[in-house]
Specification:
Layout (H helix, E strand, L loop, with lengths): L5 E2 L9 E3 L23 H4 L5 H8 L4 E3 L2 H7 L7 E3 L1 H7 L4 E6 L10 H13 L4 E6 L3 H13 L2 E7 H6 L1 H9 L3 E5 L5 H9 L7 H12 L5 E3 L6 H20 L6 E5 L4 H15 L6 E7 L4 H4 L1 E6 L8 E6 L21 H8 L4 E5 L1 H15 L5 H20 L4 E6 L7 H8 L10 H9 L9
Helix pairs in contact: 2-11, 3-5, 4-15, 5-6, 6-8, 9-10, 11-12, 15-16
């Protein structure tokens, strides 16, 4: 029998509670502000968009929040997810480091996103909601909410960023197979979409624009709510199930991470793998280095400003304090569509300001090269988003090799790339290029940040 490669938990070991990092923060998260009054928002301000149970989770500072049993029953379709020891990658890199990865691509939708799609659909169903609207980039979130809507009997409408709508037709086909309606954004279906297209009929879209369209539709009907796949506190809460399982699996491997790596766009899969470990450190346990890896073409953590900003381009959402490139910033159309968001989750941004996490940015081509390297020795072809985490983990392993340090590295392989094959075809043909944003456009977007008075 060879050395152990995978670490599996029984269905009975699915966590019964989510972990809320807000309970352990050394400094409270800055409040969400109403853009009209500049005062902290209350539950009534969010009620048009979210059911009350999710609003309560959004503002909760309780360390643990129970996972409803009907949600755990659905999770049994794919959870607990496996954790692997990347022994072949270790050998290829000739590193003394031990590399582990949590694999979220085993979910029905192929990524970590159903971890929050299922509970969000559940709480909306409990509140009598019949329809949900949302946005999606690459389509991981859109297909996950479509899957959840099918299980819960809720109609789902997805506004997909135009460049990804065109790049990834099979993601769209998956959403439609689950019964959702998928619309290219900007679209003619909303007032804001029509305004964007009037200025630029060929606009490639952005997550900020797609959010505005989804919010506009949701706000018009009492039987409709909005669902978000990243950024918000309750989404990051739901994703903590990833790190909680990983903790148990690492104990099975008699290991604990020195470094935790995750890719970052809005922050959901990064928070899922890292927050439980950060929390354990804040409560007096081991403190691993936490590394967020983002695309160089949309570098909110490494180039963005920590400031209050809108979560959407049409300025229909409240103001949150986050690392942002400006709500009007439109990133280039690189293939990691799930990482093309102008802002970063307020909780992730807050941790960066507190010095509890690090951030690095890599270009598209080097991340695809890392993904191919990983696939050829470990067998799993990552999604373009997950390639950033693979790249980050490889860089950490090579650092260990240079320094002669036998550290333990954990990263989140948040989804497979089976719906992203055109990107890999382009990479193999040498057609995939590194894309850069316009510095003047970034400067203009940052100059338009809302003016928020400092608290007295």
């Amino acid at each position: 029998m060879g050395e152990q490669l995978k670490y599996l938990l029984d269905e009975s070991r699915i966590p019964r509670r989510w972990y809320n990092i807000q309970a352990d923060l050394p400094k409270a998260l800055p409040p969400v502000l109403h853009p009209g009054t500049m005062q902290p928002v209350g539950p009534a301000d969010l009620a048009p968009l979210f059911p009350m149970e999710l609003i309560m989770q959004e503002v909760s500072t309780e360390r643990e929040i129970d996972i409803p049993e009907p949600v755990r029953d659905i999770f049994r379709l794919w959870r607990p997810t496996p954790m692997y020891r990347a022994r072949a990658l270790e050998k290829l890199l000739d590193t003394p480091a031990r590399i582990f990865y949590k694999y979220e691509g085993v979910s029905p939708a192929g990524s970590h996103k159903p971890n929050t799609a299922i509970p969000q659909a559940f709480y909306n169903k409990e509140a009598g909601i019949k329809r949900l609207t949302t946005e999606t980039g690459a389509g991981q979130w859109g297909s996950s909410l479509a899957f959840a809507g099918a299980l819960m009997g809720i109609d789902v409408t997805v506004f997909q960023v135009r460049v990804s709508y065109d790049q990834k037709p099979y993601r769209r086909a998956l959403m439609e197979s689950y019964g959702a309606r998928c619309i290219a954004s900007p679209s003619m279906e909303t007032e804001f979409g029509r305004a964007v297209l009037a200025k630029d009929p060929t606009h490639r879209g952005s997550l900020g624009i797609a959010i505005s369209e989804a919010v506009e539709i949701a706000a018009q009907r009492d039987d409709t709510k909005y669902a978000l796949g990243s950024v918000l506190n309750h989404v990051l809460l739901h994703q903590s199930i990833v790190g909680l399982e990983a903790m148990e699996q690492l104990q099975m491997a008699d290991a604990w991470p020195d470094v935790v790596v995750g890719c970052t766009g809005g922050g959901s899969n990064f928070a899922g793998i890292s927050f439980p470990f950060i929390g354990a450190g804040l409560r007096g346990g081991a403190k691993p280095r936490i590394v967020a890896v983002e695309p160089a073409a949309c570098p909110s953590l490494t180039r963005g400003r920590y400031a209050y900003d809108f979560g959407d381009t049409g300025h229909m959402t409240p103001l949150t304090k986050m690392h942002t490139l400006g709500s009007t910033f439109t990133p280039p159309g690189f293939h990691a569509g799930g990482l093309r968001y102008h802002g970063m989750a307020p909780l992730v941004s807050h941790l960066k300001e507190l010095g509890l996490i690090e951030a690095v940015a890599y270009n598209q081509v080097e991340c695809f090269a890392a993904g191919i390297q990983f696939a050829r020795c470990e067998g799993i072809l990552p999604a373009p988003e997950a390639n950033h985490a693979v790249k980050g983990a490889i860089e950490e392993a090579l650092r260990c090799k240079r320094e002669g340090r036998a550290e333990t590295i954990l990263f989140n392989l948040c989804g497979h790339g089976h719906f992203d094959m055109q990107a890999y075809t382009d990479y193999a043909a040498g057609k995939l290029t590194d894309q850069t944003y316009d510095e003047s456009e970034l400067a203009m977007a940052l100059s338009g940040l809302p003016s928020v008075p400092e608290p007295a």
